[in-house]
Amino acid sequence: MTTTYITYLRVSTSKQAVSHLGLDSQQHIVRDFIAKNGGTLLEEVIEVESGKKDNRPELKRALDLCRKHDAILLLPKLDRLSRSVSFISKLMDSGIRFVVCDLPGATDFTLHLYAALGQEERRLISERTKNALTAARARGTQLGANGKVLAQKNHAAAIAYSEGLRPQITALQVEGYRTCQSLCDVLNQRKIPTFRGGETKWHIPQLHRILKRLAM
Q1: Is 20 left (phi over 0), alpha (psi -120 to 50) or beta?
Q2: With contact defined as beta carbons under 8 Å apart, do 11 and 21 qualify?
Q3: How many other CB atoms sit within 10 Å of the CB of residue 199?
Q4: Cys staple from 198: which of 8, 43, 193, 214, with CB 3.0 to 4.6 Å?
Q5: What are the catalytic residues?
Q6: CB 163 within 8 A of CB 214
């Protein structure tokens, strides 16, 4: 019997949806997974919404399609679904099967672990962003001006991106990928986008900067 999939892709803003920023990468990941593992794509569901919201109309539609066709929900990354442990637990309890492309062999236990890491990572991003803005104000930075503010935003974005990779890098290090080269190799194999331009070619200097930020 052929495995059938409903893919769920999510971007956070309408600007990203129009420009395909991040969407092309997600589409490539799920389609590559199906090509390598076999199966049939029934429908591709795209949502423009924050992952903080559990009540998402397109996600509900994707889940309804899975129930109707007894299909598997296919996700490019776990954080496209949610970074909430309770939300992911409820989905597991619902009986709907789902697979995460970059965690193909994950068990319920490891998915709970990744969800917990993602939830903590979201909290840390919020905390660090607030701290960065507070520090900027303390230095007298005018947050409405250009120049320094743009640099501050870029720095905050780099930190946020690094934090977003923390769960995957931590898991890979636990699995034995401890050198920059081995981490770069597996990130390239999984086609994880880099910070600059959404490229998928990792080099040691890039990864070293990420690890340095995570160690701060």
Answers
A1: left
A2: yes
A3: 12
A4: 193
A5: 12
A6: yes
pLDDT at 115: 67
Secondary structure percentages of the chain, helix, strand, coil, to 5: 60, 10, 30
Whole-Å CA distances, 208 to 21, 48, 163, 180? 25, 32, 14, 7
| pTM tops 0.90 | no
**Structure token pair of residue 109:** 């236990």
Domain ranges of the chain: 4-100, 108-214
Distance CA 50, CA 38 (A): 31
Instruction: Give 104-144 as a DSSP string.
Output: TT--HHHHHHHHHHHHHHHHHHHHHHHHHHHHHHHTT--TT
pLDDT in tens, 44-73: 999 888 877 778 899 999 999 999 999 999
CB of 97 within 8 A of CB of 25?
no
Q: What is the pLDDT of residue 82?
A: 81
Superfamily covering domain 4-100: Resolvase, N-terminal catalytic domain (3.40.50.1390)
What are the strands of the beta sheet with 40-48, ordered from one edge?
40-48, 4-11, 72-75, 98-100
